[in-house]
Amino acid sequence: MGDLVLELIPSMIGLMATPIAIAGAILLLGTARPFANALAFTAAFLLAYSVIAAVVVGFATASPEPLLSVRAKADVEIGVGALLLLLAIPLIVKRRDRRRARRAKRGLAARLHDATPPFAFGAGLTLAIVNPNVPILVAGLAVVAASGTGHVVGAVLLVVAAVSGLLIPILWRWFAPASAPRVLARVTAWITVHDRTINITILLVFGTAFLVKGLAGL
Q: Which of 6, 7, 14, 8 lies closest to 134, judged by CA?
């Protein structure tokens, strides 16, 4: 079990590093229904990733042998690493239109400002699916599927990691209602300004990490 948890650490860290989703949750905390909207947004991530994890765990627990071989797990990790690196290329080579990016962010902020829980849930579900976290989750679930035991624990750790980055600002806002909004607003502003650099860094770092990990496992 300990070896499984250690092998899941790269995936868990990658799942926690979701700057756009974290910024979305923080923005929703500034709406008229802050906690209802932010929790609906988080619930969408929880639902999407729980369903994916449950499918893998269901097949893994039904098999008397590990669902994936060590070689297959390594192949999945190589594929995930290559995909993340490929996703970084357009962000690196494409020249950014700062004016258009600012307009898009203002439009998103305006839509979120008037959000309702159903809208927040739908936005969260869309973002949960169209997100580099999905391949990272797949890499982590490949580790779970290749393990002989601990499938449920491993899957739960991955899902918890995926939503922890969203839950932290919600809990902070709940327990520190006076000071948290100001600090969270600064965090959101910083993420918004540096989102391209952050996303490139995350894709390159974790793409390289999974590629190297997969190649080492061949």
A: 14
Segments making up each domain of the chain, as ranges: 2-216
DSSP string, 133-144: HHHHHHHHHHHH
71-97 per-position pLDDT tens digit: 999 999 999 999 999 999 998 887 655
CB 137 within 8 A of CB 162: yes
Question: Does the pLDDT at position 177 exceed 90?
Answer: no
**Number of other CB atoms surrounding residue 188 within 10 Å:** 21
Determine the longest span between alpha carbons in the chain, in angstroms.
Answer: 56
Q: Residue for token digits 């400002």? A: 113
Cα 140 to Cα 60, 178, 189: the distances in Å are 13, 38, 31
| Two tokens, residue 184 | 């969270």
Residue 217: per-residue pLDDT? 87
Residue 212 neighbours by CB under 8 Å, 6+ apart:
81
- Give CA–CA dist 77/81, Å, rounded: 6
Cβ–Cβ < 8 Å for 113, 30: yes
